[in-house]
Amino acid sequence: MARILIVDDSPTEMYKLTSILEKHGHTVLKAENGADGVALAHQEKPDAVLMDIVMPGLNGFQATRQLTKDPETNHIPVIIITTKDQETDKVWGTRQGARDYLTKPVDEDSLMKVLNTVLAG
Questions:
Q1: Is the peptide bond before 105 cis (omega within 30 degrees of 0)?
Q2: Is residue 121 part of a domain?
Q3: Structural domain harbouring 34
Q4: Residues 37-49 pLDDT 10s
């Protein structure tokens, strides 16, 4: 199955997303902030990235922009998963290059549907 990078500073969210992905046979890579997420994406070239927005240092919008604008990583789909549910946040996330935008708490069916869509191209 796919290798998915989760970038989230919340241990609870990290555990929840990891459990869902592993249940569906995916391998999980983890980063606790945007800078580490960008570095790990460059190093490991995951099949997709699940990106939180509100994190210390490099936030998820900035990290998404770095990944989607870099020729080495712009093929990796980024899905934003955040508590920020305003329409302006969704528009901004898309402008940074995110393929989709989910709000927390994300349910398993929605996550897998979006993930399978972006993995299929």
A1: yes
A2: no
A3: 3-114
A4: 999 999 999 999 9
Alpha-carbon gap, residue 9 to 103, rounded angstroms: 16
Say if 120 falls within a structural domain: no
Backbone angles phi, psi at 80, to 5 degrees: -80, 130
DSSP string, 16-47: HHHHHHHHTT-EEEEESSHHHHHHHHHHH--S
Q: What is the CATH number of the domain that holds 21?
A: 3.40.50.2300
Instruction: Please give the tally of structural domains in the chain.
Output: 1
User: C-alpha dihedral over 18, 27, 40, 42, to 10 degrees?
Assistant: -140
* pLDDT tens-digit readout, 61-101: 999 999 999 999 999 999 999 999 999 999 999 999 999 99
Other Cβ atoms closer than 10 A to 41: 24
Q: Within the chain, how many helices (H) and strands (E) appear?
A: 5, 5
Query: pLDDT digits over 8-28, tens only?
Result: 999 999 999 999 999 999 999
pLDDT of residue 94: 95
